[in-house]
Amino acid sequence: xxxxxxxxxxxxxxxxxxxxxxxxxxxxxxxxxxxxxxxxxxxxxxxxxxxxxxxxxxxxxxxxxxxxxxxxxxxxxxxxxxxxxxxxxxxxxxxxxxx
Length: 99
Description:
With 99 residues, the chain is mainly alpha-helical. It folds into 2 domains: 19-57; 58-99. The chain has 4 helices and no strands. It starts with 10 loop residues before the first helix and ends with a helix.
């Protein structure tokens, strides 16, 4: 068996009694099957976004909501707090300008 970061010698794949070629084929078949499943899931996700869009929701915002839902609530709270602080600072700076 090849070590991590090395390439197997092609002669090892054709040797009599070698299980390497069968292992390679099995791995490739599994990857191909998983890629098919992935394509199916991606198509289903696309269909769900289209359904959401057809009911009038903004898909861009829905994607942001999903991304936030995947994050740690404490990180979201910290980010929201910083955004509020920055926006308030900008508003204060605008109010202090003289034109």
